[in-house]
Write a structure and sequence with these properties.
alpha+beta, Alpha-Beta Plaits, 42% strand, five-stranded mixed beta sheet, 2 helices
Length: 92
Amino acid sequence: MVNQRVRVFVKGKVQGVFFRQALKVKAKQNNVFGWVKNLIDGRVEAVLEGDEENVNNLVEWCHGGPANARVEDVEIRNEKFTNEFSEFEVKY
């Protein structure tokens, strides 16, 4: 098992469509930890940590998001795995 950490920025119609809450549900289903929050510029930012395959599943999900979202672009930054999270939270 290889652990991975990524920071994801999702651009498009991703605020006000339950993107953060849906990502939290998907993270729990995939045993991925970290957080997600809305940014002032209209994007959603998330930090995802966990098994590489599970993190990649979430990143793939971010390209579509929940039903009412319209994702235009996903920026992915690989970061050093820190194992600092014990849950997945929505930041406000």
